[in-house]
Amino acid sequence: MAKDHGAQIKDDTLYEELRKKGESKEKAARIANARANGSLDHRSDRLEDRTKDELYEEAQEIGIEGRSKMNKAELVGAIRSHQ
């Protein structure tokens, strides 16, 4: 069972998995919280079907750096690598 990381971390299990993979505390918290509130629930539809603006917004929510210089294909790849 995952340790309770307090009210600020919404998905303790995912947070711990990301930390074990070497993600920073801040990045792990952003991703875990985004998944918990449903903003990372993009498995139900194809990323390629989204507009570049939609992909950019999601990349912003999960904290992908360099997103403003990415094209649509690069945004798709960056979002997938954060799953």
UniProtKB/TrEMBL annotation:
Residues 48-80 form the Rho termination factor-like N-terminal domain. SUPFAM superfamilies: Rho N-terminal domain-like. Signal peptide: none annotated. Residues 20-29, 40-49 have a biased composition (Basic and acidic residues). Residues 20-49 are annotated as: Disordered. InterPro entries: DUF7218 (IPR055642), Rho-like_N (IPR011112), Rho_N_sf (IPR036269). One of its GO terms (biological process) is DNA-templated transcription termination. It holds the Pfam family Rho_N. This is Rho termination factor-like N-terminal domain-containing protein. It comes from Sphingomonas dokdonensis. The lineage of its organism: Bacteria, Pseudomonadati, Pseudomonadota, Alphaproteobacteria, Sphingomonadales.
